[in-house]
Automatic annotation (TrEMBL):
The keyword Phosphoprotein does not apply. Pfam families: RHH_4. Residues 16-82 form the Ribbon-helix-helix domain. It comes from the Bacteria. It comes from Oharaeibacter diazotrophicus. This is Putative DNA-binding ribbon-helix-helix protein. InterPro entries: RHH_dom, RHH_sf. Keywords: DNA-binding. GO terms for molecular function: DNA binding.
Length: 101
């Protein structure tokens, strides 16, 4: 029953840390690779030239709306889920996914 989920390649959920500038300050964000991949699709769909530019703009907008960016990494994960849920992005399926479908 859960084979589709259990068979997920470990590389897709391995953590990856990237350095980024938010409001002029260097910081790092750690997300699983699958989330970085989805953020790249969201950034492209939203017309941004790069994921860091998208994240930086998003962070600034969150600060403007809320005054702080609480748990920003979780916010990024939720953005990925919302984008998938609302059909804003369609992640590319790899060979194994296509074979199983």
């Amino acid at each position: 029953m859960c084979h589709f989920f259990a068979n997920q390649p470990p590389e897709s959920y391995a953590s990856e840390t990237r350095s980024i500038r938010l409001n002029g300050q260097s910081t790092s964000i750690r997300l699983e690779k699958v989330f970085w991949d989805i953020l790249a699709l969201v950034a492209e769909q939203q017309g941004f030239s790069s994921v860091p530019r998208f994240i930086s703009t998003l962070h600034s907008e969150v600060l403007a709306l809320r005054g702080e960016a609480q748990n920003f990494t979780s916010h990024l994960r939720c953005i990925c889920l919302l984008a998938l849920e609302r059909g804003l992005v369609t992640p590319a399926r790899d060979e194994a996914d296509r074979a199983a479908a």
